Amino acid sequence: MKEIEIEEIEKGLAYDLFEQTGFDSNWIKEKEGIKGILKDLSKLYQQNETKDFTIICEEKEIKVHKLILQIRSELFKGMFLSVNDTSNQVHDYTGKSFQTIQELIYFLYHDKIDETKLTKENIEEFVDLKDFYELNQNSILGSYLVDFYSKNIFNSSKTKKEEEQK
C-alpha cells in the first residue's frame, strides 16, 4: 500500500475533518499530530457499534459512520443535512462491485488503497463513484488512480504493443 506523505496531508481526511469543523488546521501538518488522528480514524473504522449508516452492495451490508461520509462527500453531506430522520439509513449501491465499494469505504477512513486490489474494471468504478458522490476534491484518491493506471494499465498496453512489433 502506498503510504501517505506529510506533503499530502492537505489532501486527506484529517484535513477535511478540520476544515469542515472549523478548527485551526495549521497544526495538522506536524507529523505526530497527523499520525495520531489517522490512528484514531483507523480505530473508528473498526468500531462497528458506533456506525450509524448502512451501505448495501451485492446483497451484503457495510456499516459506516455518517460523519466520515459527510466529511468526504458533498453528495452525502447534502443528503444527511436534508434528512430529518435520525434512525439508521441505508444506501444501495446496485450495479457496483462489493470489493470496489469496500475499498472505497476503506479509503475514506484511511486515505490509502491496497493497490493489489485495483483492477482496470474497479478503477473505472472508483472514478465513477468519486465523481458521482462528489468526493472531496482535495482527496488523494485521484492521485492513487492516476498512479495505478499509468504504472499498470498504460505500461501493460505499451509492453503489449512492443511485443506485437517484434
What does this structure look like?
It is a single chain. The chain has one domain (6-165): Potassium Channel Kv1.1, Chain A. Helix content is 55%, strand content 8%. The protein has seven helices and three strands, in the order ααββααβααα. The protein has a three-stranded mixed beta sheet with strand order 2-1-3. The two termini are 35 Å apart. Residues 51-117 form the BTB domain.
Gist?
The protein has 166 residues and is mostly helical. 55% of the residues lie in helices and 8% in strands. It has helices at 13-21, 31-46, 66-72, 74-82, 98-110, 120-132, 141-165; strands spanning 53-57, 60-64, 89-92.
Write the topology of this structure:
Layout: H1 13-21, H2 31-46, E1 53-57, E2 60-64, H3 66-72, H4 74-82, E3 89-92, H5 98-110, H6 120-132, H7 141-165
Parallel strand pairs: 1-3
Antiparallel strand pairs: 1-2
Helix pairs in contact: 3-4, 5-6, 6-7
Give the second-level CATH assignment, the architecture.
Answer: 2-Layer Sandwich
Task: List the uncertain runs.
Answer: 1-10
Instruction: Determine the CATH topology.
Output: Potassium Channel Kv1.1, Chain A
SSE ordering: HHEEHHEHHH
Q: What structural class should be given to the helix and strand makeup?
A: mainly alpha
What is the global morphology? Answer: globular
Assess the beta-strand content as a share of residues: 5-15%
